[in-house]
Amino acid sequence: MTDSATEIFAALAHPTRRQILQDLKNGELAAGEIASKFNATGPTISRHLAVLRQAGLVTERRDANRILYSLVGERLALSVGDFLSTVCPERIVLREVRKRRGTTTPAAFEEAASA
Asked: What InterPro entries does UniProt report for this protein, alphabetically (predicted)?
């Protein structure tokens, strides 16, 4: 795995970080909002957010005295998808279908898988 993929999978290894990513799927949240969802100290959540940020899975922006975090979903999807396509035959077929047809429909996947 590349260093980038290693960082991403290391970031995903902790359940708190996975939950933070799930919480961010509906949009931007302030650091305090994120921390309030967990039975952990603020510094602990801050460290989890730093790991996610370093892996490129979240971004932060400052708004006055608040730090707002957002999910970088495409990075997560591409990294996990690339890994799955190397180990999962169905993903390999789907990747080939996308290359040939430029489509991601389930029907195209089923058609290619049955061929």
From this structure: ArsR-like_HTH, HTH_ArsR_DNA-bd_dom, HTH_MetalResp_TranReg, WH-like_DNA-bd_sf, WH_DNA-bd_sf
What fold is seen in the domain 3-71? Arc Repressor Mutant, subunit A (1.10.10)
Region(s) of the chain under CATH 1.10.10.10: 3-71
Report long-range pairs for 37-45 (Cβ below 8 Å, ≥24 apart): 40/16, 45/16, 45/20
Tens digits of residue pLDDT in 39-93: 999 999 999 999 999 999 999 999 999 999 999 988 888 888 888 777 877 766 6
Radius of gyration of the chain (CA): 17
Strands (E), 4-110: 29-30, 58-63, 66-71
Angle at 114 between CA 109 and CA 115, to 5 degrees: 100
Asked whether the CA dihedral 32, 34, 35, 36 is positive or negative, the reply is positive
Q: What is the pTM of this model?
A: 0.72
